[in-house]
Amino acid sequence: MIKAILIFNNHGKPRLSKFYQPYSEDTQQQIIRETFHLVSKRDENVCNFLEGGLLIGGSDNKLIYRHYATLYFVFCVDSSESELGILDLIQVFVETLDKCFENVCELDLIFHVDKVHNILAEMVMGGMVLETNMNEIVTQIDAQNKLEKSELIVYTGLFCISQDFSQAGLAGAPARAVSAVKNMNLPEIPRNINIGDISIKVPNLPSFK
Amino acid sequence: MVASSLKLQDLIQEIREAKTQAQEREVIQKECAHIRASFRDGDPLHSHRQLAKLLYVHMLGYPAHFGQMECLKLIASPRFTDKRVGYLGAMLLLDERQDAHLLITNSIKNDLSQGIEAVQGLALCTLSAMGSAEMCRDLAPEVEKLLLQPSPYVRKKAVLTAVHMIRKVPELSDIFLPPCAQLLHERHHGILLGTVTLITELCERSPAALQHFRKALPSLQVVPQLVHTLRTLVMTGCSTEHSVSGVSDPFLQVQILRLLRILGRNHEESSETMNDLLAQVATNTDTSRNAGNAVLFETVLTIMDIRSAAGLRVLAVNILGRFLLNSDRNIRYVALTSLLKLVQSDHSAVQRHRPTVVECLWEPDASLSRRALELSLALVNSSNVRAMTQELQGFLESCPPDLRPDCASGILLAAERFAPTKRWHIDTILRVLTTAGTYVRDDAVANLIQLIGGAQELHAYSVRRLYSALAEDISQQPLVQVAAWCIGEYGDLLLEGTCEETEPLQVEKEEVLALLERVLQSQMSLPATRGYALTALMKLSTRLHGDNNRICQVMSIYGSCQDVELQQRAVEYNALFRKYDHLRAAVLEKMPLVERGGPQVDEEAKESKEVAQLSEAAPVPTETQASKLLDLLDLLDGPSENAQHPPPLDPTPGDTLIHLLDLPCAPLPPAPIPNLKVFEREGLQLNLSFVRPPGTPTLLLITVTATNTSGGDVTHFICQAAVPKSFQLQLQAPSGDTVPAQGGLPMTQLLRILNPNKAPLRLKLRLTYDHFGQSVQEIFEVNNLPVETWQ
Predict the structure, then answer these.
(1) What pLDDT score does B197 carry?
(2) Which of B777, B786, B779 is nearest to B688 (CA)?
(3) What is the mean pLDDT of residues B72-94?
(4) Rounded to whole angstroms, how far apart are CA atoms B292 and B289?
(5) Rounded-to-integer distance, Cα B483 and Cα B510, Å
(6) Based on C-alpha coordinates, what's the Rg of chain B?
(7) What domain of life does the native source organism fall in (chain B) (predicted)?
(8) Beta-carbon separation of A156 and B370 below 8 A
């Protein structure tokens, strides 16, 4: 069983923390700090396995980690999981993130942590591996995002705007759409976003990218 | 999530721009105030955004409990966007320790029964993440229904949720066991993965379920089905979608192999069905990438754990040996871990790889060297003890501090168990004390003192070695203590003549006294050490010739020492000099041999992790009382705990101990000695079954089985046994102390009897238990013991 999945950067700032066993908030933060402390001490060319820290269950549990550029991906598992298997799982997870975010980098994880949670929920559920087929996961995520988008249109009355789009094409009516939206007093439509190298096709609703 | 990203991302941007911790706190506190206000005022369109922000700050470590009710509201909303964030919040903020968590049960129930896949998926995910026992009980019927839904997405999630439910509420296994056979025939990998996990969980939890899945009924061919699925995976190569670096769905392969391991363990029929397949997987898997290696390792572990063919086992151990030499550290780590698991059952096979394992000790990687240390300690036996101890002591000198205690105690334990000669033993302990004295356990001092005391021929040798070691370095406290004691006891041997075993050492009386005084005065000495030194000085007053002025002086000085213990000693010794000089020689004469304190050995063995595998076999509880009279009435009146606590380990001669170590602890399959029913009262029956293991003619294993066919439970059941003096009896811990009524699970207990003289066996049993509200005590001798038990 997977006890926890943690992603933090080289300075120990958490980018994602998911616990599959109940811990109090204080303990969770302590676990993150302790894990960072243990993992950051490791050299570059040693094996990817560590005994768990005291807070997360001591030597009954293992920390299996991978270091990608500025991020550590750490899975804390108990003895029933195959160590090499979990290494592969981390790789599949990162590749899936890459597919969903297009050349994922740390900034993507920072600004879209809820999306990362959603992707993770399609792979690991209740501490057990659910699905490892990247295509299936990405299809599912796309379907769910479509569902959200469609709701947004219905509920916030942007139906007219969507009609505009369908007539003039997505790139054709930026100004009209923006002004229409302005009038509806919805400040959340982005006008410009400074998020790394994500390109937003304004003014349509920001795509998954 | 889409429309709200700006706000969340703006917040994130602001937090990142904060230059100090204090600034960050300020930003977050302001935002939390807004969020709280918005929860209160209820802006239904945007509350999901607010919750998303709250979850973000929660990840950074700030309090977010006020968002719990908002999660509930969002989950109840009909919008998918709201539900998505609400369920995520429930998983992150709520757990079974909060009272609020039960309130989602109803929402989850509703979401599970409405038809939108994505929503059902969310509900199942949350349930499996934080579902408590009550929630699981309430929602089990819904989840069961979802197992039959047409959509594979929902079904795979339902299967894994079932696993979680069984963990929380084991009784639910009854609901989820029947669908398993059907689900195994699915094509969808996600469902298969979940099903295999579910079956694994069921089998691990209940032996009845394990039996069920092992049966080879036409409707329920679990093992053949698994074999077929795995074979398909292995043969299809990399054409499937699920392949990871060329291996098709390694995750599913590994899970299936693990389940096959559980099903095949100790079960001939299932093991036979899988033999061919395992051989195929072991030989055909591509090991150039990690995924292939993962599958191969799992295969090796499975082969070793089931009743596989001998050739297959050899193949498996060779694969592990190959992996030990692999350049990839991860592979070597897993190889060491696997060998550690195997060392108990296939000791000789693992021994072949000893040189490689010892090399791994010197790895710079801390994880690897730790594993190598554990394995090395497990591999020490009487034939390689000298070489291994040499290696381990070399390692001890240079290993990182966190491994030192384990290494030191491991060496000491191995030395104790396998020391070829007493002198070697003393040398080894001495070396450990000098290199890692501060890391050894407290009883090492007592053990060494007792050991030296017992080896009369080595007194001269020991005291010289210790004197030299002490003269070099007085900082290692355990060493100083032992040395002080030795010098005190055998000071005369130190000064007189030569000893063949060491170089000639000319020591003057004054030097010895000066050394002990240095120890007394040193800042580094602990109070206990000072006590040792003081007493040693006193003893020397009788051992050494010449006047005792110097010693008297020391005693009078320490008569006013600040340390109360030392002061008391000094004053008493002073009195010995002055008023009771005639008694001095008698009081200070050589100490008699200290009785070997048995429990120390057991505790050391139990606590030492590295030799945990061997020590499980070695310190089997010995009932020393049993070696007394045959008339045992008064013996068995002692407190019942005696039989359960592990009493002192008998220092039996070397070979018998080795035989015991090699034997597995579990009761062996019954040999052709007929069983014996020895006791029956009101439905409680006691049966004895006998085994004479072929390798050891003096050993008899008796399994006592207690069954209860009456209507009431038998509780606090304790069985004690006694045998004549010439026998040795060891009682292992019973399987339990309750025998449930109506033919429930019987209680078993294993007795080991050593009969070196081949005397006729006599056995007396004493039972105490509670039955039908009364406590019962029965003492009886077992009659009609078959001759084969002792001839």
Answers:
(1) 92
(2) B786
(3) 90
(4) 6
(5) 17
(6) 35
(7) Eukaryota
(8) no
* Spatial separation of the C-alpha atoms in residues B540 and B495, rounded to whole Å: 11
pLDDT for the residue B646: 38
The residue that leads in pLDDT, A183 or A22, is A22
When comparing pLDDT for B499 and B537, which is higher? B537
**Contact between chains at A189 and B9 (C-beta distance less than 8 A):** no
> Strand, coil or helix: what is B711?
coil
Closest by Cβ to A125, choosing from B92, B125, B370: B125
- For B557-586, letters b (16+ CB in 10 Å) and e give ebbebeeeebeebbbebbebbeeeeeebee
Residues 6 or more apart in contact with residue B487 via CB below 8 angstroms: B463, B466, B467, B470, B494, B512, B515, B516, B536, B540
CB B43 within 8 A of CB A102: no
pLDDT attached to residue A168: 46
Q: Is the CB of A151 less than 8 angstroms away from the CB of B249?
A: no
H/E run at residue A132: none
3-state secondary structure of B700: strand
pLDDT recorded at residue B663: 42
Structural tokens at position B216? 């080879």
**pLDDT for position A178:** 54
Of the candidates B9, B80, B193, the beta carbon closest to that of A129 is on B193
B601's enclosing H/E stretch is helix B598-607
Tokens of B102: 């039960």
The neighbouring-strand residues paired with B686 are: B679, B706
Q: What digits encode the pLDDT tens for the residues B457-489? A: 888 888 888 888 888 888 888 888 888 888 888
Q: d(Cα B48, Cα B464) in Å, to the nearest integer?
A: 80
Handedness of CA B371, B377, B378, B379 (dihedral sign): positive
How does DSSP assign B326-361, residue by residue? Answer: -S-HHHHHHHHHHHHHHTTTSHHHHHTTHHHHHHHT
The one-letter amino acid at B403: L
Which residues in chain A are contacts of B244 at CB distance < 8 A? Answer: 88, 91-92, 132
Please write the tens of the pLDDT for every residue from B591-615: 777 666 544 444 443 444 333 444 3
Residues 6+ apart with CB under 8 A from B568: none
pLDDT tens-place string over residues B302-349: 888 888 888 888 888 888 888 888 888 899 999 998 888 888 887 888
Report residue A132 as tokens.
């490892």
Distance CA B360, CA B409 (A): 20
Q: Which among A51, A125, A133 is the nearest to B242, CB-wise?
A: A133
- Within 10 Å of residue B626's Cβ, how many Cβ atoms? 27
Residue pLDDT, tens place only, B149-207: 888 899 999 999 999 999 999 998 888 888 888 888 888 888 999 999 999 999 998 88
pLDDT band at A60 (very low <50, low <70, confident <90, very high): confident
Contact criterion met (CB below 8 Å) for B129 and A125: yes
- Band (B500; pLDDT cuts 50, 70, 90): low
Is A51's CB within 8 Å of B118's CB? no
**B579 — pLDDT class (breaks 50, 70, 90):** confident
Contacts of B77 (CB under 8 A, 6+ apart): B44, B83, B86
B746 prior amide bond cis, ω within 30: no
How many A-B residue pairs are in contact by the CB < 8 A criterion?
A: 194
Range 26-85 of A in CB contact (< 8 A) with B: 29, 43, 45-51, 82-85
Task: Find chain B residues with C-beta within 8 A of A65's C-beta.
Answer: none
Q: Which of A132, A18, A134, A125 is nearest to B157 (CA)?
A: A125
Q: Which two tokens stand for residue B776?
A: 């019962």
> Token match 């993507």: residue?
A108
Work out the mean pLDDT of chain B and round it to a whole number: 80
Across-strand partners of A74?
A6, A65
